[in-house]
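Quick one: sequence plus magnesium ion SMILES, need structure tokens.
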Amino acid sequence: MLEIVDLWVEIGGKTLLKGVNLTIQEGEVHILFGPNGSGKTTLLMTIMGSPHCRILKGEIKFYGKVINNLPIWERARLGIGIAFQSPPAVKGVKLRELVEILSKGNGFSEELYSFLKLEEHANREVNRGFSGGERKRAELLQLFAQDPKFIMFDEPESGVDLESIALVGDAINRLLERGSCVRRQPKSYTKSALIVSHTGYLLDYVKVDKAHVLIDGKLVCDKNPWDILTTIREQGYKGCEICKETC
Ligand SMILES: Nc1ncnc2c1ncn2[C@@H]1O[C@H](COP(=O)(O)OP(=O)(O)OP(=O)(O)O)[C@@H](O)[C@H]1O
Ligand SMILES: [Mg+2]
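Reply:
Sure thing.
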């Protein structure tokens, strides 16, 4: 579904991604760990097509088609979606209005407002005055409305209280299972995802196939999520750099 080959990216004259290779197949969920400032958000924003992220070298392919030069809206139409790390407030646009535009023909259910505890927010301007956790849930609601095939979640659990993390996990599962007729066992998803996380809490709720670690703009590891998380907890990200040699 998504293939990234030798991707080099700069923002404001600074090279932030230095030769990233990544392949995500249909139905696969990958998690991305990495210290602050290592380039995780830059990678996601480059895949989404932010004009601030200048591709110096390499290719991003979606279903075999090179999308390097496509604007954000065309990538969104192809089925790429994102939940931002810090979603902006949108003055003058109500959450319900945005959801209605995004969800045309997508079978969006009104029940999702209550599922995500956003009934009272529907008639407020998008994210204006929303708490950190409310913004994260509003992002998920917009993804339900947009229904992308490949979804990037940039720290969906950051700023979310421990109890609500279960709700975020459930919502991500529902998003990734959408369109399947039966709840399949063992769990397999119809959509693909790339999830950025620092905590790994979501591993308790979402079935993740692979994990990666991004350090200084390079993917240094590609392994089982629990093994990577244990290494990071016990040795910090230094452990991932050492582990690279044994990978
Ligand atoms: N416009 C810019 N000009 C200069 N540097 C920038 C610009 N935008 C981002 N950066 C820098 O690029 C680096 C990577 O940022 P990025 O947001 O991708 O990190 P991250 O891995 O997502 O970190 P975090 O875990 O804190 O979210 C940071 O050091 C950031 O300050
Ligand atoms: Mg980030």
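Residues 2-244 form a domain with the Rossmann fold fold (CATH 3.40.50.300). The longest strand covers residues 14-24.
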